[in-house]
Amino acid sequence: MAEVLSQSQIDALLNSMKGSDGEQTKETFEKKPNYRKYDFYSPKKFTKDRLKMVRGIYENYARLVSSQMNGILRASSDIEVMTVEEQRYHEFSNALSDNDIMMMQELLLPDRSKNPPILMHISQILMVNMIDRTLGGIGDDREIDSSYKYTDIELTLYRKLMGYILGATKDAWSNYIKMELGEERLEENPGLFQEISMDEPVAIVMLNVKLQEIEGRITVCIPGNLLTRIFSIIDRRKNVEGAYEPTGEEEREAIFSRIKDSPLTVRAQLGDAQLSLRDICSLKVGDVLDLNKPKESDISLYIDQEPWFEGKLGVHNKNVAVKINKRIHEQSSGEAADK
């Protein structure tokens, strides 16, 4: 008959089983990968490649602004890109206090579409010390009261300094898209800004600025609609450039299709006359100028200062008109062939 276990042996066996299960559970928990939660109610609008491109653009932007600040403030500065991520606009808006000031810069894209401006906020401690150095101070104040408000003179200098900082935007994007800078606006109450809805996706670029012993941040908010429009123009430009890859007749048609809508000036020239300055000064109403051409002769049609056609002057629907008879370059080529 099998040996019967005592109560102490049974307890020891149960404890050993619990310990082994606990260690196994702990090891399993430690090996479990840590996944980042994804909000399916607010899906991401921009891919990692798009945000990586924006990061590269603003790394170039950081170098340009750092060079400008070194010259304006006569102090060494170091600017680096901390993060580039997609958020909702309310996350950017809620991070601003009542005393914060926000600058807006309109970007004029090649298609001249109407888009919301980019927004920029600079930390108060950094801006106060920048203004101090602009006025001849040392700019080493490390403690700024959260209730501090800018004076009228400081607001003027604020706009001036932010104009330099925002002005580098055009050069930073120049490798990808040609844009112009539009109107700059200063918003003293960011909560009143309503050109962007609270749930609209935006790209937030956070720059860390070190100005000697002072450290602060510059935050750039790019509206999702604006960024989408920029990406579409960049993609379209790439596709159009690809049209030049074929050779021969296909390349000719691709080039011609792009210039079809170009405006050209068409001018009809009746003839030429050469007068002295004395004759021109004595001209009056009723005088007749001899153009040295028979009245039934053809007149020339010029397209952007180049002669292209010859035709007869007449009337069409009670308006002066020219009936084209021949192309000038065809005539020239025919004469050359006869010779």
UniProtKB/TrEMBL annotation:
Q: Does the keyword Membrane apply?
A: yes
Which keywords fit this entry according to its UniProt record?
Answer: Bacterial flagellum, Cell membrane, Cell projection, Chemotaxis, Cilium, Flagellar rotation, Flagellum, Membrane
Single GO term (MF) = cytoskeletal motor activity
Q: What InterPro entries does the record point to? A: CheC-like_sf, Flag_FliM, FliN-like_C, SpoA-like_sf
Q: How does it sit in the membrane?
A: Peripheral membrane protein
Q: Give one GO biological process term.
A: positive chemotaxis
Residue ranges the record marks as coiled coil: none
Instruction: List, for all copies, the residue spans of the domain called Flagellar motor switch protein FliN-like C-terminal.
Output: 258-328
Listed GO cellular component terms?
bacterial-type flagellum basal body; plasma membrane
* Subcellular location(s) of the protein: Bacterial flagellum basal body; Cell membrane
Under the heading Gene3D superfamilies, the entry gives: CheC-like (3.40.1550.10), SpoA-like (2.30.330.10)
Q: Main subcellular localization, coarse class?
A: other
Q: Which family does it belong to?
A: Belongs to the FliM family.
Give the protein's recorded name. Answer: Flagellar motor switch protein FliM
